[in-house]
Amino acid sequence: MSLMRSEAEELDRADPLARFRERFSIDDRYAAYMDGNSLGRQPRSAGDVVAAALEVWSDSMILGWRDWIRLPIRLGDRIAQDVIGAREGEVIVSDSTTVNLFKAAMAAVDAVPDRTRIITSDDNFPTDIYVLESVAQQRGKELVILAADEVEGLDLGLLERSVDDRTALVALSHVAYKSGALSDLAGVSQLVHDAGSMMLWDLSHSAGSVPMTVRELPPVLAVGCTYKYLNGGPGCPAFTYLPHELQGQLRQPIWGWFGHRDQFQMRTDYDPADGVEQFLTGAPTVLSLVTLGAGLDAIAEAGVAALYAKSQRLTDLLIDAVDGIRSEAIQIASPRDAHARGAHVTVRHARAKDVVRGLVAAGVIPDYRPPNLIRFGPAPLYTRFVDVIEAVERLEAVANSIGAD
Ligand SMILES: *Cc1c(COP(=O)(O)O)cnc(C)c1O
């Protein structure tokens, strides 16, 4: 491990993104934070932007809305440009990922009413599957849950054989939340589009960690989370991508005044806006939206391509270090090919819960995913290569003290 530590120190010295670490609020209370994929760290500027918004509230009261009302659109445009490669006017920030999934899935299914099936995979995030079950039940569709490989993700051939002219919607995660397996965004989108079906991507684990250009895809819908790699803060609202080609054609099911063509005419009949604004519902959560702005500053400056390049090195090092642990009890449960995974690495251990408890006590914060998985999400904006070595050294010590069963 000491050889690896000097290799890690060398990687840190040569790291072009190293300067971004000081943009985040970090003390030495914990040896290594390995959970940037669940809740990104706090940008140092977050406190200032919240204080500024509080001041507008106290000074201007309701007049503050003159500016706040555009936040879902303005931040959406920033995500479009700096994170997912969409065009202006195609992304909004509102509600939770779960709610946005529901709106997008209902709108998609209603756009192809004669089709009867919704397809997803069993490695999709639980909330995604619950939402799809609900949509299927409410619209009288059949939900088909394909079996994905626990490590490598959903097989493209299986998907291809499953999509046909009965398929209304295919809803998948770009990066699998457990194993980190990366889907073929372009290949899958094309396959689904060619079958005349709607495609809905969940970008929660790839937004801000894997580069993409959604405007080059056939028209698909997407949603994603902002409190993971985008560092928006706990409960920060999610984003929805609705390309221009689909705008005006889809209708989402939560008819609120923020989605109305003439919100402040206060009419009693609902007339949806033409643009992506139609997917807004009610008043935006202003204090969370301003912290998202702080999170996006660093992402935009670093660039997702550079973040991805560093995260591949971080996770390669993590896998090498875990391989170096002499313990039969630990196995890598993520794709070993860096091009086949997102930015986190998952380790299998029969007593994962005890291992995670031991790690947290030893100053390392990973994620526990029952029953036997431990997730390490070294976020490239602020995680150092030596942090990875710290984490794995402590993993080895904890695992040795626990044993296999
Ligand atoms: C984190 C995550 C969510 C979170 O949903 P919320 O409604 O914002 O709590 C949803 N889907 C996926 C794939 C996620 O990774």
List the helices and strands and how they pair.
Blueprint: H1 2-13, E1 32-33, H2 46-60, H3 65-68, H4 71-84, E2 91-94, H5 97-111, E3 117-121, H6 126-139, E4 142-146, H7 156-162, E5 167-173, H8 185-194, E6 198-202, E7 221-224, E8 238-241, H9 286-302, H10 304-323, E9 331-332, E10 345-348, H11 352-361, E11 364-365, E12 367-369, E13 373-376, H12 385-402
Parallel strand pairs: 1-11, 3-4, 3-5, 5-6, 6-7
Antiparallel strand pairs: 2-8, 7-8, 9-10, 10-13, 12-13
Q: Can I get a quick summary?
A:
By secondary structure, the chain is of the alpha/beta class.
Quaternary state, please?
single chain
Order of secondary-structure elements: HEHHHEHEHEHEHEEEHHEEHEEEH
Judging from the principal axes of the Cα atoms, what is the shape? globular
- Helix percent reads 25-40%
* Helix count from the secondary structure assignment: 12
Whole-Å distance between the termini? Answer: 25 Å
Q: Strands of the biggest beta sheet: in what spatial order? A: 2-8-7-6-5-3-4
Structural class: alpha/beta
Strand content: 5-15%
Largest sheet: 7 strands, mixed
Bound molecules: pyridoxal-5'-phosphate
**Low-pLDDT ranges:** none
Rg is 22 Å
**β-strand number:** 13
Name the average pLDDT. 97
